[in-house]
TrEMBL record:
Similarity comment: Belongs to the ABC-4 integral membrane protein family.
Membrane protein topology class: Multi-pass membrane protein
GO cellular component, one term: plasma membrane
Protein's name according to its UniProt entry: ABC transporter permease
Keyword Transmembrane: yes
Length: 445
């Protein structure tokens, strides 16, 4: 009876250690699969998240931009200059942006006509009232476009200024409505629902007037608070500039730049054929900008350097953190498996010594232990892979509001890393088998 209890205790201890090895590998696989799954899918999601904070490509007439500055653009929204533009693009050409190779990466765009007009403070009338200069931005707010492919898309600043705090509502396109910046509204005493009159002297010397009903007051937190946004068609009538815009803001999902992208941004003609094909068929900001120039006559497209740099830096740091967590989990698994195997070998020393005593070689005993550990680890890895996929989906929903696409490469990579980890951990423990001397162990020495 005592002998049976000893066997039962030994079996229980061995089973517990095997379960601990399986659990260790399972936890490592869970962390590795979830982290690497997010790493391989986080690029588009981070770019989509960051692109809610403004455009990352601007399109201007060649007369207002230099081709050599393609890579060094500083994106500024709204009417930044005190003078009206003198070079224009056709507003009707803006829809061509959705016809480029990377059309599906273009998530939004909005043309702008930046002009200057004057108005009078609210409640003021007569010759004694001083005119107040107003920076007017004619644009699209929530415009539905029919694409050459027959599909329709909705674009405009309503989707590109999601961080604005808006009191009231957005204007309707092709109307006499507008939204006014908080700073400008305070300076002229305007409120939601008021109607202001804009006065504009055109390039031909004519004086135009336009009544604008304010549907909202926005707070952008920057210089745009001094602007008035109205439909582009209304601004074109006011300035006598039909079908004219001086800028197009574009929001695109892009791939972080690398040496190839930087080289192409300076001079695409300097690329070899293979480099050009790789660059053109990758969603770099510079390649998307280049393709926009191809479809819009007389345009120069430039990436907003700050936005592109921010996207690349955030992506690299996020990926680095997740990869570090994966490495640490693998190191922890290796240490745990090595310690558990040493303990297992110590408990089973009599069994292993007996095998060697009846003719088993060190290699055969080592392979036996390795095979047992491999089977246990494989079961833990399979369970961990399933749990890791679930954790990745939770991370995707909580952080990005959408699921994570698990690529087969993730599972292959994790299983290879775990196999190497377990092999290294086992190899360091197997050395104790080689030092077993059957005669001493079986005599209890």
């Amino acid at each position: 009876m005592f002998f049976l209890r000893m066997i039962a205790r030994s079996f229980t201890r061995q089973l517990r250690r095997r379960l601990l090895i399986a659990l260790t590998v399972c936890l490592s696989a869970t962390v590795s699969v979830s982290m690497l799954g997010v790493v391989f899918d986080v690029g588009d999601k981070l770019n989509a998240e960051l692109s809610t904070y403004g455009s990352n490509i601007t399109v201007q007439p060649k007369a207002d931009a230099v081709v050599s500055d393609l890579y060094n653009t500083e994106g500024v929204s709204g009417a930044a200059s005190e003078a009206d533009p003198t070079a224009f693009l056709k507003e009707s050409d803006a829809v061509k942006i959705k016809t480029i190779f990377w059309a599906f990466n273009i998530t939004n765009f909005a043309p702008q006509l930046n002009i200057h007009a004057t108005t009078s403070p609210s409640g003021c009338s007569g010759s004694s009232c001083a005119s107040v200069p107003v920076s007017v931005v004619g644009t699209w707010f929530n415009k539905s476009l029919k694409l050459p492919s027959g599909e329709t898309t909705v674009v405009g600043v309503e989707g590109m200024r999601s961080w604005w705090k808006l009191e009231g509502a957005w204007p309707k396109d092709d109307s006499d409505q507008g939204v006014i910046g908080k700073t400008l509204a305070d300076s002229i005493g305007a409120k939601v629902g008021d109607t202001i009159t804009l006065h504009k002297k055109t390039a031909s010397g004519e004086n135009h007037e336009q009544n604008i009903t304010l549907t909202g007051i926005y707070d952008s937190g920057d210089a745009e608070n001094s602007s008035l946004y109205i439909p582009s068609s209304t601004a074109q009538v006011l300035a006598d500039l039909p079908d004219s815009v001086d800028k197009i803001e574009v929001k695109a999902l892009t791939t972080p730049e690398n040496d190839l992208a930087r080289k192409a941004a300076k001079n695409p003609a300097a690329l070899s054929q293979d480099e050009w094909e790789t660059w053109y068929c990758t969603a770099y900001p510079s390649s998307i900008a280049y393709q926009i120039e191809e479809v819009i006559p007389g345009a120069v497209a430039k990436q907003v350097r700050q936005v592109a740099a921010l996207q690349g830096n955030v992506l690299q740091k996020t990926q680095a953190v997740m990869i570090l967590m994966t490495v640490l989990s693998l190191i922890a698994a290796a240490v745990a498996v090595a310690n558990l195997m040493v303990a297992t070998i110590g408990e089973r020393s009599a069994e292993l010594a007996l095998l060697k005593a009846i003719g088993a070689t060190d290699g055969a005993v080592s392979r036996l232990m390795m095979a047992e550990t491999a089977v246990i680890s494989l079961l833990g890895a399979i369970v961990g892979a399933g749990l890791g996929s679930g954790v990745a989906q939770i991370i995707g929903q909580v952080v990005f509001g959408s699921g994570i696409t698990m690529r087969p490469m993730v599972f292959v990579l994790v299983f290879v890393l775990l196999a190497v980890t377990v092999l290294v951990a086992s190899a360091s423990s197997i050395r104790s088998i080689l030092s077993l001397k059957p005669a001493e162990v079986l005599h209890g020495r």
